[in-house]
């Protein structure tokens, strides 16, 4: 067990809880487990590694790949029987196969079915999730079902009379735990730096770059900026890999010594702030911000121009990324409607989106309010929260096609939330749900350009 814990750092308590629940091979397994937590918290890794360590017969099913009940049933049967071209169309056929073939093969040996991203099961047959919770009662096997998901238990709405699963929660990593996990990959960061650098790196310089203290100082600076807005380990590792190259550029160019932490922080601080704006977009610029090697006016002007050029390149990259963003047609209009709802006052919706809104007299107060300075524009103050019914009202106002309100249309709102283009709840409820658009004007203008829509025409700041 100690060997398993050493391979998965900062998850000792969760591994021990799973070990206590799954027990030894001669003990009966629990009916079902519900493993929840935020993204990139080690849920699937801990479950799969522990099952491999216990040498239990298990089937790991990704509910995104198995998008229909038939495919999911066949994936379960194929994983347990190792037979290909198996047909299984219903839960009744699955239980018959488990009671027939599997009972003879496994008898009372432990069997575990792991459903990763189990929130997708809610959109399938309404009785499927309930059947898997009581699978032990339908077949004469020592079988356990484990549901791994990013949602909390309350989002699944289990019916009365169903045996509820044992709940196990994976909390977010703390700042110290993130530091420890990312620091374990120091060699891969250094190898990426050496492979991406065009300069000739001699022996002494290579030793300086491989110094653990240099990487530790970078991680402290990096997490001090990125820890509050982002707890996703995968995204943090990606952004750290990109910014570590920029952190070491002045060291490679012999402009700053690797031990001069003050100058290195002054060099990397504006770069980290710029990278923070590109979080989750996976945009990497070829040119980076140069550090002030000499404190004179000429060098400062050159650094400022370099920084402005980098921002322009990132802006162009953002537009290119937005235009190539493969969203469905109506999802793009939903995203545009979300932006308009976030940056327009609710009292101006009638004037902006209705043709026959009546004439409006210009009062002196309105004229003065219109003469705003740039800092007080709605598009500069940040997005405001809006309700779901207001989003749908704007969506139907800007959409020329007449379509009905279907479940597929509402599901696209949850997809936009999952893609982190809209902040809010994935659950669609007209009375409760509130959202906020978190993309900028340049991004939304590029998306609107792909569908031939003029966003500026419907923004209150520009009328």
Q: Which regions have little confidence, pLDDT < 50, spanning 5+ residues? A: 285-305
Q: In what range is the share of β-strand residues? A: 5-15%
How many whole angstroms does the radius of gyration measure? 27 Å
Count of DSSP strands: 8
CA-CA gap between termini: 66 Å
Give the SSE order as H and E letters: HHEHEHHEHHEEHHHHHHHHHHHEHHEEH
Shape: flat
Helix content: 40-55%
Largest sheet: 5 strands, parallel
Output the structural class.
alpha/beta
Adjacency order of strands in the biggest sheet: 2-3-4-1-5
Number of helices: 21
Q: Overall mean pLDDT score?
A: 81
Structural topology:
Layout: H1 2-7, H2 12-22, E1 32-37, H3 43-54, E2 57-62, H4 69-81, H5 91-106, E3 111-116, H6 128-133, H7 135-138, E4 143-149, E5 166-170, H8 175-183, H9 186-196, H10 203-209, H11 212-226, H12 233-252, H13 261-277, H14 297-323, H15 329-343, H16 349-353, H17 364-370, H18 378-381, E6 386-387, H19 388-398, H20 407-418, E7 422-424, E8 434-437, H21 441-450
Parallel strand pairs: 1-4, 1-5, 2-3, 3-4
Antiparallel strand pairs: 6-8, 7-8
């Amino acid at each position: 067990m100690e060997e398993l814990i050493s391979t998965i750092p900062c998850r000792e308590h969760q591994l021990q809880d799973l070990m206590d629940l799954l027990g030894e091979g001669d003990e009966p397994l629990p009916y079902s487990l519900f493993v929840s937590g935020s993204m990139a918290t080690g849920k699937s890794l801990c479950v799969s590694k522990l099952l491999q360590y216990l040498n239990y017969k298990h089937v790991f099913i990704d509910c995104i790949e198995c998008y229909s009940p038939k495919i999911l049933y066949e994936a379960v049967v194929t994983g347990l029987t190792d037979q290909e071209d198996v047909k299984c169309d219903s839960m009744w056929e699955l239980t018959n196969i488990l009671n027939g073939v599997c009972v003879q093969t496994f008898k009372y040996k432990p069997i575990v079915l792991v459903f990763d991203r189990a929130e997708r099961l809610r959109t399938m047959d309404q009785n499927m999730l309930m059947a898997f919770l009581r699978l032990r009662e339908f077949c004469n096997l020592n079988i356990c079902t484990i549901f791994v998901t990013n949602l909390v238990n309350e989002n699944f709405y289990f019916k009365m009379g169903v045996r509820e699963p044992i709940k196990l929660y994976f909390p977010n990593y703390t700042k110290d735990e993130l530091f420890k996990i990312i620091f374990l990959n120091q060699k891969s960061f250094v190898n990426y730096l050496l492979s991406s650098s065009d300069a000739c790196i001699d022996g002494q310089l290579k030793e300086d770059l491989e110094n653990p203290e240099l990487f530790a100082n970078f991680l402290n600076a990096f997490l001090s900026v990125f820890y509050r807005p982002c707890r996703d380990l995968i995204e943090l590792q990606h952004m750290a890999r990109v910014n570590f190259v920029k952190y070491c550029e002045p060291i490679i160019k012999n402009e700053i010594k690797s031990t001069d932490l003050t100058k290195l922080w002054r060099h990397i601080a504006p770069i980290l702030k710029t990278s923070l704006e590109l979080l989750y977009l996976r945009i990497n610029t070829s040119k980076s911000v140069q550090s002030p090697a000499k404190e004179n006016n000429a060098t400062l002007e050159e650094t400022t121009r370099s920084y402005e050029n980098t921002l322009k390149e990132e802006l162009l990259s953002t537009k290119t990324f937005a235009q190539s963003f493969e969203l469905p047609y109506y999802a793009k209009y939903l995203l545009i409607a979300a932006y308009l709802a976030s940056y327009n006052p609710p009292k101006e919706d009638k004037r902006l989106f209705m043709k026959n809104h009546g004439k409006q007299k210009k009062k002196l107060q309105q004229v003065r309010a219109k003469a705003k300075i740039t800092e007080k524009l709605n598009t500069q103050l940040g997005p405001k929260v809006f309700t779901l019914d207001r989003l749908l009202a704007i969506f139907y106002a800007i959409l020329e096609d007449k379509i009905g309100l279907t479940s597929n249309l509402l599901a696209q709102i949850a997809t936009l939330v999952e893609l982190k283009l809209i902040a809010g709840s994935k659950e669609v409820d007209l009375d409760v749900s509130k959202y906020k658009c978190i993309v900028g004007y340049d991004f939304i203008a590029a998306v609107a350009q792909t569908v031939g829509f003029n966003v500026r025409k419907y923004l209150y700041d520009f009328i």
